[in-house]
C-alpha cells in the first residue's frame, strides 16, 4: 500500500469512554429520531428544517449558535422540527480542508485523533443544549462514535451513487437523505433512495451481514449541473419515479443552498428563504406534491457570508461565527426567516 503510518489511533471505545453520552441524551436522540421519522411517514405535519453552519468550526461559535437555535426552537417547535447541522466532514470537489474531524485547526497539520475528540465533544455539547443534530456520512468506515449521536443523516451528492454509501444508508436506524448527484439526474437520485430502502448482504466489522433496508431513506433535491431543481416540474418528475418504484414513505427535502440558490451563475446564499417560500407557494394547491415535500435544508451561521482561509490570514481569521466554507445566512436573517416560516405554516 502506498502510505506511511503516522500513529496508531485510540479505539472507538476509548474515545466514547472519554466523551460519554448520558442516558438522558441517548433518550433524547431516540425521541428526536422518531419525530423525524414521523414527519417522513406523514403522522407529524410539521416541516423538517435542517439548519446550521456549512461546516462546524470553530467549536465556540458552533455552541453559541446552538444556544441561539435552541432558544428559537421554543418559539417555533409546534410548526417546525429543527435539526442543527453539525457537519464535521466536508467533501471536496478536488482538494481542500475536509473538516474538523480530520483537521480541527485548519492552519495546522491534520490530526485525526485530536479531530475525533474535538468533534465528539462538540456534538455531545449541542445535544446537551437540547437540539437534535445532523451530519453528512462522508467516511462510512469511521461512523461509530458519531452515528449514534445523529437524528438525521445526509448522503452527499458526490456519494449517493456510491454502492458503499447506499449500503450504509440501508443499514442505519436513522432517517437518511440521499442527495441527487451533482449533474442533477432525478432518476439517479431516486435510484439512490431505492437502493437505501432495499436490503443488502455486505461486510460490517468483520461479519457478513444482511442490512434490513431503510424505509426512511428519502430524496434531497440540491440542484444540479449549475441549475435549480425545486420547481413543480421537478417535483412531478420525482413523484413519477417514486410511484413507479413503490418507494416507502415517499418524501423530498429541498436543499435551498448549493445549485438551488444560483443567481446569474453564482451562488447567492441570501436566496435560501425565498426558495423555501417559493416551494411552499408552488405546492399549496397541489395536495400530492405538498404531501411529498417534507422539509428544507439551509446553511446558516452567526455572521453573514463566508471568508477564505489560507496560511497568509491565519492570524486574522474571524472566529466569531463566519463560515470558512460555503456562505451562510446570518443568525438575525435566520431567526427572522424561521419565525416568518412558522407563521406561514401555521396558517
Q: What is the compact description of this entry?
A:
This protein is an alpha/beta fold and 347 residues long. The chain is built from 10 helices and 12 strands.
Classify the helix fraction into a percent range: 25-40%
Tell me the distance between the termini: 60 Å
As a percent range, the share of strand residues is 5-15%
The value of Rg in angstroms is: 19 Å
- In the sheet with the most strands, the strands line up as 1-2-3-4-5-8-9-12
Number of helices: 10
Tell me the CATH architecture.
Alpha-Beta Barrel
Give helix and strand order, one letter per element, not per position.
Answer: HHEHEHEEHEHEEEHEEEHHEH
How many domain modules? 1
Description:
By secondary structure, the chain is an alpha/beta fold. The chain has a single domain (13-346), classed as TIM Barrel (Alpha-Beta Barrel), CATH 3.20.20.70. Helix content is 38%, strand content 15%. It has ten helices and twelve strands. It has helices at 12-18, 23-41, 59-76, 112-129, 163-171, 186-197, 232-245, 272-283, 287-292, 331-346, and strands at 47-52, 80-85, 133-136, 152-155, 176-179, 201-204, 207-210, 217-221, 252-255, 262-263, 266-267, 293-299. The strands form three sheets. An eight-stranded parallel barrel has the order 1-2-3-4-5-8-9-12, surrounded by seven helices. α3 (59-76) links the parallel β1 and β2 (80-85). The mean pLDDT is 96.
Amino acid at each position: 500500500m502506498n502510505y506511511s503510518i503516522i500513529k496508531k489511533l485510540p479505539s472507538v471505545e476509548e474515545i466514547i469512554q472519554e466523551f460519554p453520552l448520558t442516558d438522558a441524551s441517548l433518550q433524547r436522540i431516540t425521541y428526536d429520531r422518531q419525530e423525524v421519522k414521523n414527519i417522513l411517514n406523514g403522522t407529524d405535519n410539521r416541516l423538517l428544517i435542517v439548519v446550521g453552519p456549512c461546516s462546524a468550526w470553530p467549536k465556540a461559535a458552533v455552541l453559541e449558535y446552538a444556544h441561539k437555535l435552541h432558544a428559537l426552537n421554543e418559539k417555533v417547535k409546534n410548526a417546525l422540527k429543527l435539526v442543527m447541522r453539525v457537519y464535521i466532514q466536508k467533501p471536496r470537489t478536488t482538494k481542500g480542508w475536509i473538516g474538523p474531524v480530520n483537521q480541527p485547526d485548519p492552519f495546522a497539520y491534520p490530526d485525526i485523533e485530536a479531530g475525533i475528540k474535538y468533534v465528539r465533544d462538540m456534538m455531545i455539547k449541542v445535544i446537551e443544549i437540547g437540539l437534535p443534530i445532523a451530519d453528512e456520512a462522508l467516511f462510512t468506515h469511521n461512523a461509530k462514535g458519531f452515528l449514534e449521536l445523529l437524528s438525521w443523516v445526509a448522503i452527499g451528492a458526490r456519494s449517493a451513487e456510491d454502492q458503499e454509501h447506499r449500503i450504509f444508508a440501508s443499514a442505519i436506524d436513522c432517517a437518511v437523505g440521499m442527495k441527487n448527484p451533482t449533474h442533477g439526474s432525478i432518476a439517479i437520485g431516486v435510484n439512490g433512495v431505492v437502493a437505501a430502502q432495499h436490503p443488502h448482504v455486505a461486510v460490517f466489522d468483520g461479519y457478513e451481514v444482511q442490512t434490513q433496508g431503510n424505509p426512511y431513506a428519502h430524496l434531497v433535491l440540491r440542484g444540479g449541473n449549475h441549475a435549480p431543481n425545486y420547481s413543480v416540474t421537478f417535483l412531478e418528475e420525482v413523484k413519477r419515479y417514486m410511484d413507479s418504484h413503490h418507494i416507502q414513505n415517499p418524501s423530498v427535502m429541498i436543499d435551498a443552498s448549493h445549485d438551488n440558490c444560483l443567481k446569474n451563475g453564482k451562488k447567492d446564499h441570501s436566496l435560501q428563504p425565498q426558495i423555501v417560500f417559493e416551494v411552499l407557494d408552488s405546492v399549496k394547491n397541489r395536495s400530492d406534491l405538498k404531501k411529498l415535500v417534507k422539509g428544507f435544508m439551509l446553511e446558516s451561521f452567526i455572521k453573514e457570508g463566508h471568508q477564505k482561509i489560507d496560511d497568509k490570514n491565519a492570524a486574522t481569521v474571524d472566529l466569531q461565527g463566519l463560515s470558512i466554507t460555503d456562505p451562510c445566512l446570518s443568525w438575525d436573517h435566520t431567526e427572522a426567516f424561521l419565525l416568518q416560516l412558522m407563521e406561514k405554516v401555521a396558517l
